[in-house]
Queue: 3 jobs
Job 1
Amino acid sequence: MPDHTSPGTLLSELRARPPLVHCITNFVAMNIAANVLLAAGASPAMVHAQEEAGEFAAIAGALTINIGTLSSAWLRGMETAAIAAGQSGKPWVLDPVAHYATGFRRAAVGRLLELGPAVIRGNASEIIALAGGASRGQGVDSRDGVEHAEESARLLARVHGAIVAVTGAVDFVTDGERAVRIEGGSALMLQVTALGCSLTCLVGAFLAVRPDAPFEATVAALATFAVAGETAASKAHGPGSFSWRFLDALAALDASLLDRQARLRCA
Amino acid sequence: MPDHTSPGTLLSELRARPPLVHCITNFVAMNIAANVLLAAGASPAMVHAQEEAGEFAAIAGALTINIGTLSSAWLRGMETAAIAAGQSGKPWVLDPVAHYATGFRRAAVGRLLELGPAVIRGNASEIIALAGGASRGQGVDSRDGVEHAEESARLLARVHGAIVAVTGAVDFVTDGERAVRIEGGSALMLQVTALGCSLTCLVGAFLAVRPDAPFEATVAALATFAVAGETAASKAHGPGSFSWRFLDALAALDASLLDRQARLRCA
Amino acid sequence: MPDHTSPGTLLSELRARPPLVHCITNFVAMNIAANVLLAAGASPAMVHAQEEAGEFAAIAGALTINIGTLSSAWLRGMETAAIAAGQSGKPWVLDPVAHYATGFRRAAVGRLLELGPAVIRGNASEIIALAGGASRGQGVDSRDGVEHAEESARLLARVHGAIVAVTGAVDFVTDGERAVRIEGGSALMLQVTALGCSLTCLVGAFLAVRPDAPFEATVAALATFAVAGETAASKAHGPGSFSWRFLDALAALDASLLDRQARLRCA
C-alpha cells in the first residue's frame, strides 16, 4: 500500500479524530464489539430501533449491520438505517451471519444487499453461499477455507459494486479487480465468540475515516486485527487469556508498529 | 460411570464432532455462554426469533431455553423452537430462571414444561419452587442449599420424565430413580454472572452428543464445569481473574484429566 | 462524611444484606453491570418486559433505568417499572444515555423524568443537555469536562428534587445545595464500554441500602468505583487487563480500605 493509504496511516487518522460508528450488531457481540472499537480509538454507538436508527445513521461517520440475532423488529431498524445512510452519503458494512441457515435470514440479506453496502464481510461459507455457491457452513461457523471463497468474493464484489472481505486463517479482500491477502491473527480467535462481528464494526470505523477509499479502509481494519491477534496470541494460554490481551494489544498498537508487522500480499 | 459414558468419553466425542447447539438464552448470558461452548469445543448459535427458531431447532443437535430476560416475543420464539425440537426428535434443556418471581414467569414456565424438556437445570430455590415447594429465592439467586432440593428434584424428574439437575456447592442430578452428586467448582462462580446459564447451554452440547443418554450427558456437562471451575479458582484472585481462567481451563481440559479429576458419587 | 454515612459504612451494610437491584439497562452493559454488582456484593436482576417489570420493581430494593439501546417496547417496560417503584416507595436511578442524540431519546427521557427518579447519573454532556444547555457530546461520549456541568447539575437537582451525579475525570454529586467532588478512577475507564452504565446500577445497589439517604448512597457508589478503578489501573496494561482487575478490586474492597482511600471534597 502507498504510505498515504497504509494501515498505519489510517490508524493514525482514526486516533486523531475518533469517528462515531453506528453499529447494529447482535446480542452476543454488543459488548466485545464496543470494547474493540474503544481500544482501537473509535467511538461506538449501538442504536437499533426503527424509531431512531435512521436519524442516528445520518449523524454517524459510518454504519455497520450484522444479522446475528435477527428478528423482524430489528430488520426494520436495519433497513431504516441503511436507507438513511445511503441518503446522507455514509458508507455501511454488511455482515451476513449464517444467512444460509434459514429462509428468514436469506430473505433479510437479500433485502439488505439491495440497499447497497460499501463493504460485505463474512467467513468463507457465508461468502460462498452469498455468491450462490454451495457452502458447508454449520450454524454460524465456516466449514470452508478462505481460498475456496476467493472466486465467490470477486463475483460478489463485481455484482454489488462493493468491497468483499473473507476472513479466516488468511484473510482475502477484493473490489472485484484488485485483491489482497492478509496473514496474521491466531487460531485462538476462532475460540472467542463474536470477534468476526467485532471486526465488521472496526471496518466501519476505518470506513468512516476514509469513506472514499473503502478497499484500503477494509484492508487497514483487517491488518489491525491480524497484528493485534498475533501479538495477543504470543502470550495467551487459551481463549480466556487471549481476549483481554487482544484488547490490550489493540490499544497499544501504533501506526509504525502496524505498518511494520502487517503482512499484506497482492493476490 | 462405565467408561463408555464417562464424562471424559463424552467430552472426547464432543471435540471429535462439534455439535451445533441452538441456544435461546438471556441478554446477560449471551456472550459468556457462547464462549463457554466454544472453549469446550461445541458450536453455539444464538437464534431466538419466532420467524426462524423452529427451522433452526430442526437443524441443530440440541436446543436450550433460558427465561432470564423474558418477554412475550421471546416466549413465542421459545415455544416455536421447543415444538420444532420435539417434532424432529431433538432433545432440549429448560433453565427456569427465577420462575417464581412473577406471574408472567410462572405462566411461561408452565407452558414450556408441557413441551417436554429432556433436562431441567436450575438452582435449589428454582427446583424447589418448580416442584411446588416453598423456596427462599431472591431475584435470580438461590437462598436454599442443594441438599434441600433433592426430593423436589426427584419428584420433578418423575412427573415430567426428565433429568433434573440442581447446581450449587455440590451439584445433584437425578432421573427420578438414579442420582449422582458432583463435587468441585468454586464459590467464586457465584460472583460471576450467568455461569449457571452457560452451564445450561453446555448441558445442551453434551445432550447433542448423546441424545439417548441424557442422564450421563448432564452429569458430563456438570463434571466438566466443576473440574474447570476448580482449576481456574486455584489461581484466581477474584471474580475477574476467575472468568478468563475458567475459559482457559475449559479449553485445556482433556478426557483423561476430566475423568481423573471429576468427583462423582452415587446418591 | 460522618462515620454512619461514610462510603465504607454503606458498603458494609450492602455486604451484610445484599440488596436485590432491578436493572433495566442496555444490551452492551448487561453482563458487565451484573458482574460489577456481584463483585460489590449486591444481587442484580435484569428484568425489562412490560409484562413483569412493574411486579418486579415492587419486589426489588431499588430500580435503575438506562436508555442506552432504547426501543418503544423497552420504554414501556421502563415506564411501567418506574411507576411501580414510585407506588411502592422504592427509589430509582435514571441514566439518560445520549438523550440529546435523537428526537426519540429526548422524548423518552422527558417522560421518564416526570416519573420522579431519586438519582440522575450521566456524563457531563448528558447533564448539560438535560438542563437545557448546549452540550458537545458525540454519540454516547462526553466532549465536555465535568467542571462545565456543575451548574447544570445543581439546576437539574433543584428542578427535579433529585440527586444529580456527573461522572468523569473528577466526579461531582449534588442535591442542589450540598455538593461533593470525588477523585480517583483512571483514564482507562473511558476505554472500557459500559462502565458508566454499570456505575448507575451500583448507585441503585447503594440506594437500596439507604433509600432515606440518596445523596450519601450516590457518593458511596461513586467512591467505591473510583477506588476500585484506581487500584485496578495501577497494575493494568490496557483496557483488557483493566476490566478483570477492576472486578477483582471491587470484590477485594472492604469498608476500611474504602474509607481510607476515597478522596472526597465538599464543593
Note: Chain C touches chain A at residues 26-32, 68-73, 98, 101-105, 138-141, 190-194, 237-241, 243-244 (CB under 8 Å).
Job 2
Amino acid sequence: MPKETRTVPDFAQGNGLLPAIAQDAESGQLLMLGYMNQEAWDQTLATGQAVYYSRSRKRLWHKGEESGNFQIVKAIYLDCDADTILLKVEQIGGAACHEGYPSCFFRKWNGSEFVLEGERVFDPSQVYDKP
Amino acid sequence: MPKETRTVPDFAQGNGLLPAIAQDAESGQLLMLGYMNQEAWDQTLATGQAVYYSRSRKRLWHKGEESGNFQIVKAIYLDCDADTILLKVEQIGGAACHEGYPSCFFRKWNGSEFVLEGERVFDPSQVYDKP
C-alpha cells in the first residue's frame, strides 16, 4: 500500500519545493499560494505560523515578517499525491496580499479579461519600505 | 504600472506550467491542485470545463474524461503575480479525487502525523480501468 504510507510531504516531487495553499479557516476564502521546502515545512510546524520559501528572494519567508500580517495555522492538509500542502489559517491584519488586498486572487475573469474584484485593506506604500 | 498590465496568466514564470487550484464554488472546499499550460488554459476557456496538463502523462487532461467527474467552471481568478490560477467549479459526481474522496486534501495533520479525514464517494476500482 505505497500510497497510504506517503503521509509526509514529498518534497522530492517538486525538486525540493511544493506548492502550499493558504485558505482562510473561517470564511474559506483562498488567500494565496506559496511554496515550501523541507525547512519551511519544519518551521511552519515548529512556530504554528506559515513559513514559506520565497523563490524570488531565495530564502525562508516567515509570512508577515515585514507587514505584520502573519498567518496563524489552524489546520494542515496534504493531498492524495503528497505534493501539495493546504494550510487553513487565521490571517492577521485581514490581508494576505502584498498589494493590500485580502486575497492574492483579486483579479476575476469577466469572459474576456481579468478585472479587479475586492477592495484594498491597506496601502502597500504605507506598509513596505521602498527600495 | 507593469503589475496592472499583467492581466493574463504568465506561463513563462512556471517554465510553461502554472498551478491551478480548483475550489468548490458553492461550499468553498478546496478540491485539488493541477497544472495548466497555455493550451490547457485556452481549452478551459473554450469548453467551460477544467482542462489541466498532466505532468505524469505529459498531455492535456480534461478532468473527468475517464471518471465522468468533470469540473464546470463557474469563475476564474488570477493572483497578484499572475502565476497561479484559481477555478471555482461545480464538481460533477461530488468527488474530485481519483481516490474517490470529495477533495484530494483528505489527509489532515493531527500534530504528529497525517490521518484520513472524510469518506469516499466512490470506489476507485469501480471507476478506473486497471492496467
Note: The beta strands of chain B are 18-24, 30-36, 51-54, 59-62, 71-78, 85-91, 107-109, 114-116.
Job 3
Amino acid sequence: MKYALHCFAQSGNAYKAALMLELCAADWEPVFVDFFDGGTKTPEYLALNELGEVPLLEAGELRLSQSGVILDYLAETLGRFGPENAEERREILRWLLFDNHKLTGSVSTLRFRRTFSEHGEDEVSAFLETRAKGALGVLDRRLTGREFVLGERPTIADLSLCGYLYFTDEIGIDPRDWPSIRAWLERIAALPGWRHPYDLMPGHPRPDTP
Amino acid sequence: MKYALHCFAQSGNAYKAALMLELCAADWEPVFVDFFDGGTKTPEYLALNELGEVPLLEAGELRLSQSGVILDYLAETLGRFGPENAEERREILRWLLFDNHKLTGSVSTLRFRRTFSEHGEDEVSAFLETRAKGALGVLDRRLTGREFVLGERPTIADLSLCGYLYFTDEIGIDPRDWPSIRAWLERIAALPGWRHPYDLMPGHPRPDTP
C-alpha cells in the first residue's frame, strides 16, 4: 500500500500521522497543503475533507481525516503501536481524546498565536497558556514512573500527544520544563526512524516568507 | 449490570454519558461530584480519575473516564448507537474527536466563562465565540440533508456532539440559529427516554447558590 498524506510542515496534527508512517517505514508521500494561503478552506479541499483541516490520508480508495482516526487505522493495518487488548484500546482512546481536547487543543492554538499570527500577548494567550500548563501537568504526572503513556511500550497515544511538543521554541512555554515529559520526548526521538516535523513534511519555512 | 456515573448537572460532558445510559434504559445512578467546590481536584477524586474531570463511569470492576471512551464502551456492551462496520466505526471516531477538539472544546469553555465565572466579556470570550461558530458551521453543513451525523440512524457521535447544545441560553450564542442543528436537536430530543441535562443529573442549580 502506498499512502499519500495531505500536510504541511508546521502542522503538529499532520506530524502525528507522518511520524507514524515514518516509524513504520511505510511507503508514503506528502501532498503539500498551503494552509497559510487558505489551502484548507478551498472548495476543492473541503470536498476532500469537510472539516477543513490537515491531515488527510489517502490509502487506496479510503480517505481518512482526524489524526486520531488515521493513527487508529494505521496501527491496525501496519500492525504497530496499536492496542493488544480491549483495555489498552480504551486507554489509548482516552489519551487520544485528552490530547485533542486538552493538550493539542491549547498548545497548538497558543503556538499559532505566538509564532504564526499578528496577535502578540493578550488575554487570549494568557488564557491558553494556563490551559496548556494544566494539560502538560496531567501528562507529566502520567509519565512519571512510566516509559510511555501506556507503560513500557510506545503506542499511537504517545505519537498523538507529542505532536506539537517538538516545536519547543515556538510555543512560548517549553514542554521540556516538565521533567517526565522531557525524558519521554527524548525516548520517542530515539525510536528508529524518528524525525522532526520540519524534516518530515514540506512547507517550512512559512511559504509566504522570502 | 448496574452503572454509577460520577457527574454534576451542569456538565455537558457528563450529560453525553448520562443521556446514553437513559436512552438505553440502563440501570444507573448518578454520583454527585461537587465541581464548583473543587470536587474534581481532590486527592480522592484524582485517585479515581487522574484527568480531574467528570464523567467517570463505574461498571463492575471497570472505571472509565473521557466521555468518548464511555460512549464507545456502552455502545458495545448495551448494543445500541454503535457502529455497524469498520467504516462507521472510523466515522464515529472522527466526529467524537472533532467534538472534543473543536466543538465542545470551544462551546463548553465559552459557556463556562459567560455563565459560571466572573469573567464577563473580554478578548477570550470573543476568541472562543469565533471558534464555537466555526465548529457549529462545520456541524450544520454536515447535518444538512442528513437526519443524524452518520445518516438515518442516531449514534454515539450525535450523543457526544449535542452534549452542550441543550444549554441554549447559557452559551451566549444559540445553536438553534443554525437551522440543520436546530432540526437535529429536536430529533434527538424526540428519542424515547430523552431528558434535558438538568433533569438527568444532580446539582442544579449551582450548589453554592441559595
Note: Chain B touches chain A through 29 residues (CB under 8 Å).
